[in-house]
């Protein structure tokens, strides 16, 4: 029925320090379920995958992570409906850099109503430097959703993208 079930394509970006696991999260998500396409793009890569519920195609952009790439970040951010800000729960620095750099960067380049998702990755690692409650509290104070993931073990990665897509559908 026309209009009953609009299929949407939503752009999500992964940001955060190098080595926190952005590419691993992306691969875990894309390869575990249906793989639509893989495409190189200026200053980054995006891959797309269609979810059933909600019925959207997620276009997931992953940074190259280099300093050189920073100049292209505004392009990378353009029309992103959700920013996934990733830190490594075993790296205090990667969490502090969300606070001091990545969140401001995202907010400066965000479209209105953009969904922000704070993600503590490497939840399988035992040498924890950031507690779950600290991550959760910071996310709540700054109007972000929050989840801990492990791209290695495959914990919460699919849930993360489903929750992000649901929040985007609600926001638009
Ligand atoms: P990126 O630079 O943010 O894209 O990070 P990568 O995805 O390249 O991952 C950096 C390193 O962390 C690699 O050695 C990964 O194998 C490792 N890694 C990524 N995710 C996890 C995770 O959930 N748990 C553990 N233990 N290691 C991870
Ligand atoms: Mg990477």
UniProtKB/TrEMBL annotation:
PANTHER family assigned: RAS-RELATED PROTEIN RAB
Superkingdom of the source species: Eukaryota
Protein name per its UniProtKB record: Uncharacterized protein
CDD domains: Rab
Keyword GTP-binding included in the entry's annotation: yes
Statement: the UniProt record of this protein carries the keyword GTP-binding: yes
InterPro entries: P-loop_NTPase, Rab, Small_GTP-bd, Small_GTPase
Native organism: Lymnaea stagnalis
Keywords for the protein's UniProt record, in alphabetical order: GTP-binding, Nucleotide-binding
Taxonomic lineage: Eukaryota, Metazoa, Spiralia, Lophotrochozoa, Mollusca
Pfam families in the record: Ras
Annotated GO MF terms: GTP binding; GTPase activity
